[in-house]
Fold this protein.
Amino acid sequence: MSGHPEADIYHRQGMGNRAGFGETPALVIVDFVVGFADPAHFGGGNIAAAIDQTVALLAFARKHAWPVAHTRVVYAEDGSDAGVFTLKAPSLRKLTEASPLSQIVPELTPLPGELIIRKQGASAFFNTNLAGWLAFRRVDTVAVTGCTTSGCVRATVVDAMQSNLRTICVTDCVGDRAIGPHEANLFDMGQKYADLMTRAELEAAWSTAR
Amino acid sequence: MSGHPEADIYHRQGMGNRAGFGETPALVIVDFVVGFADPAHFGGGNIAAAIDQTVALLAFARKHAWPVAHTRVVYAEDGSDAGVFTLKAPSLRKLTEASPLSQIVPELTPLPGELIIRKQGASAFFNTNLAGWLAFRRVDTVAVTGCTTSGCVRATVVDAMQSNLRTICVTDCVGDRAIGPHEANLFDMGQKYADLMTRAELEAAWSTAR
Amino acid sequence: MSGHPEADIYHRQGMGNRAGFGETPALVIVDFVVGFADPAHFGGGNIAAAIDQTVALLAFARKHAWPVAHTRVVYAEDGSDAGVFTLKAPSLRKLTEASPLSQIVPELTPLPGELIIRKQGASAFFNTNLAGWLAFRRVDTVAVTGCTTSGCVRATVVDAMQSNLRTICVTDCVGDRAIGPHEANLFDMGQKYADLMTRAELEAAWSTAR
Amino acid sequence: MSGHPEADIYHRQGMGNRAGFGETPALVIVDFVVGFADPAHFGGGNIAAAIDQTVALLAFARKHAWPVAHTRVVYAEDGSDAGVFTLKAPSLRKLTEASPLSQIVPELTPLPGELIIRKQGASAFFNTNLAGWLAFRRVDTVAVTGCTTSGCVRATVVDAMQSNLRTICVTDCVGDRAIGPHEANLFDMGQKYADLMTRAELEAAWSTAR
């Protein structure tokens, strides 16, 4: 991100510092469901590559017994819980409990004990039990992966920070249908909300920290 | 925004629709405080121009008796409520109750009965009484102004949408220290969370709707 | 409630006033599911009678096109979302998506468009989309029915009030496994959080108000 | 509580278990402000005795470096944030930032670094930064003291449990203007939300656990 033409403004105003690791990390995987892996629906861009990298990070997280949470977008079949988000993006209403599009991609299938969050909003925290689920496990650091970088990942990262969790946005484990917004949102998050780390950097840093 | 090189992806996937007006609007003015109006602290870019436009919009809102809410960032003097946000941006800790930097700019001084929200996070909704304050007034539409577009405005807009309020981001009443992030975030918000309108468009549309 | 031996203290300290009706009411039916209707599981006391009265109130609400929301307690089959509540009351973990015990009682079967909330906590508002669902419909008044009066009804009433909704606890439409706690919680709610009305009083008052 | 005439129903239905200690406790002191210590305003009953006991518990908590949070009820001078709660209890509006009635009682004066929460609702968690403040400190257990047992203490305890924190209601450190509601709410909390312990029991159990 150092190449961003306006990065110096942020530096002069005291932003872009590292929050660093806490004691107990968790992995949050946002909306890696079939419909967001498919360019014919909500996918495209670098999402497929981000899923591949997240497969590896999920194996790492499980090996180290990190709590793991997955999100799905799920709307009621009868439209009863549709709202402003589905006015902006009516196609989201396809994502019902039983729809193939709203199932987590097979290569990231949750194991028993991993949390599966059904959400109607953008953030994995908004109107969900994620914050309390993490609190029960004394998690103070979340690594966020998923899609889209400019949408539900960004919203999740902002809420993780606002929930006072040290937040890492894993740059090669998040993807977006469009690369411009992907890059722009990584910049915003790195300046204000999250530490940006590649998967390799995260795994190395964590292994060193233990 | 039609000129964005990747806008067609969003269009094909069914995003970027208008949510439209509801019945009862409110004006939310995010963080137009002295420190964010001053390029030596958190200001710069097009923030001064956005304040000027917001002065006019505030007059319009008051004339039409819209509920008006203002936000300030306020941290405790003793640092007791500092957290992850102030790890990323330690300079925010200067914004205490008594600091000149955290006072609302004089040209937007709140009137009695307007809500003043003290917040430590990015969003005007997170950990605040804003949603309930709006519910009590049966507000279903919020026009968001303030700064920064890529920071607290974006976070407020996402939460307004998630709170199921029809959300308008008033494009010339929001500003940022850096123009690239300003533009990038307007694009994201317009595609997924908010209707983008200039002040003139908003005022004309509202007057027509009555 | 006038007979409560300590009611005068509340009166002297300025409590126990009426909040009154707003403009747009909704009906919230808390946890009237099979397991809470059955004394062998979580039921007993006056719950059956409260269900009978709620059948009538639901018909009234539908006739007047009030938004209607129902809650169910639903825990994951694999125990992944169990927490402190299930430490206090492990039997709650029986209430899974497919369990007959967690299905809404047949006489209150939701119609399409009515909201069905799955919750793990006590309050219908906590970590759910209820507040936003009501905001989208400009609801400012909620009539709360369900069970138990001393548990999820009380928690829902407190959150409705805290969400700045005028709250009516419908005294013969709420029930509890134990009558002492039922009465004690009606007293608390009436003094501080909700207007207490019987179903007949509510229906008459609403009809008069139109 | 074993003497409660209906306790056996709860026992048969699987409630009333202990949640137990976690790893990191915090002390939350609810609304021990001048106005709630004064029978002429919101006080009376056993509140004075509960303050005395809390003075001792606060010393214990500080000695063991527990995080400590205090709450105050604070409404704006201009009434801008009044709502349903102040319709039910208009006298709450006296509790403004500068009012002597809303100041924490002198014997419990917060030390630097202790959190002071200003709230308009009943619960110390609702619309406040308490959950995140605890998460940042990896707190998983909260001991709740304060007043009133049947009001803001109860609401705080329910939200602590819903936030997945192991919750202890310290029975001789909570007080109420009226003893009937005090006892009734201790019963409810003990059955469903919190472990009931006297100050002496809490201190002994914690010292043993180390």
